[in-house]
Write a structure and sequence with these properties.
Length: about 130
């Protein structure tokens, strides 16, 4: 298992849970983070539970999906979600993942799914010096 990928998985989960009204759920045996009743990130299996030690997650990217899909390790999310702007990222051991970019994608996905009142709350929290 790659400690770097486990750190990435832990970071993304922790960041996702900082958004207003975000909470962890486990539908279908997967780990997801929802805002109210809507999923905004599928976190996938931790690297220590995958056969090859890789890590993957899926986010909704209505603004940046086209560019994201040009990057190595990305593909439209299955089950028809890709048509709605969902992108799956797969990071392999030894890769140098752009963790800050992934954080931006979490933010974009949250904004795409969350009610407008919560997006306004997020913006207000950030302008007050909070770093969600």
């Amino acid at each position: 298992m790659s400690d770097a990928l486990q750190d990435l998985a832990d970071r993304l989960k922790a960041e996702a849970l900082t958004f207003p009204e975000a909470w962890e759920d486990h539908p279908w045996g997967d780990t997801v983070v929802k805002v109210r009743k809507k999923v905004f990130v599928f976190l996938g299996l931790p690297p220590d539970q995958t056969e090859d030690g890789s890590y993957g997650f899926s986010v909704k990217l209505p603004e940046s999906a086209e560019v994201a899909l040009t990057m190595t390790g990305t593909e439209p999310t299955g089950y028809g979600l890709g048509r709605a702007g969902w992108v799956t990222v797969r990071v392999q051991p030894g890769d140098e993942p752009p963790a800050d970019l992934y954080s931006d994608w979490l933010d974009e996905s949250y904004r795409a799914v969350a009610p407008k009142t919560l997006v306004k709350q997020l913006d207000a929290d950030r302008s007050d010096g909070g770093d969600a």
